[in-house]
Structures are given as C-alpha cells and as structure tokens.
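User: Assemble these into one structure.

Assistant: Restating your components, then the assembled model:
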Amino acid sequence: ETGVTQTPRHLVMGMTNKKSLKCEQHLGHNAMYWYKQSAKKPLELMFVYSLEERVENNSVPSRFSPECPNSSHLFLHLHTLQPEDSALYLCASSQVHQGEYEQYFGPGTRLTVT
Amino acid sequence: GESVGLHLPTLSVQEGDNSIINCAYSNSASDYFIWYKQESGKGPQFIIDIRSNMDKRQGQRVTVLLNKTVKHLSLQIAATQPGDSAVYFCAENLGAGGTSYGKLTFGQGTILTVHP
C-alpha cells in the first residue's frame, strides 16, 4: 500500500444520484490530485490542489465537484453523471517541493454509472 | 499538443528474460520522467524516475535510459519475474512552468506479460 487510501473501492450509481468519493493521504504531502482512468486511454488529470488551494481544473464538467478541506483529505462530489463517466478514479498526492514531482497513488474507485 | 506515447501496447516475455519497454515523448521542455507499474485492481506504483540532466539511472533490477536527442525513454527490467506482469506507464513532467506542484502527462501504457 502507498499511504493513500480511497473509499469506496467500487461504486454503482444512477444518473440522478449524488455520491462522493473520498481520498486520504497519510504521507504528510501538501498537494493532491484527481485523475480519471478510462479503458485504453491515458490517465487524465482532473483537478490539482496545492497547499489546499485548487490550482488546476482541466475543463472538467461541473457535475464533478472537488473539495479539499485540509491537506490530508480530498473529495470528489458527483451528481447527475453520465454513463461515459464510468471509469476508475484515482487520487494521488505529492510533496510540493521544487524539482520533486513524484506522485503517490491510491488504489482508485471503480465507478459505474447506470 | 504535447504527448507521451508508447511504441508497443503489449510485450510478452519468458521468466528470466530481460524486458525493455519504450516510450516516446514530444515535449523537449520536459525535465523529469517517471515510470509507474499498475497491477490489476491497484493504483499506479512508482518504479523509478530520472531527471533530464541524466541519461541513465539504475534501481533494483530496473534501469531507465533517457535519450534527449530522439526524445526517447526506456525501462529495462532484468530477470523478469511473473510478478512483474502489469501495465507500465511512462509519465513526463512538462517543466515547472511557474508551478510548484508536479503536473504529469501519462502515456497510454504497455501491458507486460511474463510467462513462467
């Protein structure tokens, strides 16, 4: 295990549901990331929080809403999703430090939208 | 746009052989590269990294080679074992660009299968 945990590991939701994904890092890092991993596509960066401030939002639809209450926790709030949003959602963390870009990943949440 | 890509989507080897996984990148400003391993049901795990001021770096059973002239990155795994079977991703950092956090761009991945 990498010190980054994600819950739930699996989630099935309807298009009208509201759910949240949770990520927690136990590494003392101060930057956290959400990625989407779809079959046969590279990892897509969704959001970045650095020092608890959102610093990156890669044209993600508003039905995805991130929240970072502190440097150890990151949430992804989901509402009115579409079937094409079904994917593995990965959380990662890193230590903000010049020249150090290694990110540590959690196991992911497998999301299925029905 | 800039991208990171892999030459081969799949690689099959026999246990004990050496494996070489390749990656091409197109952004000459990239200053840092990482190889990740992703096993089924798990998130990507860090294997080894290399900075742009180096051309080779060795770890335990793994070596990363960087050829900036042709923008090519490779991962060599010595004495490949069945436990090495996984998807391998290369990722590049597109230069700090004024940011203090890492912004990685990932390749599609290569599936490595090791036969006993």
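Chain A touches chain B at residues 2, 4, 6, 31, 40-43, 45, 48, 50, 55-56, 90, 92, 94, 96-108 (CB under 8 Å).
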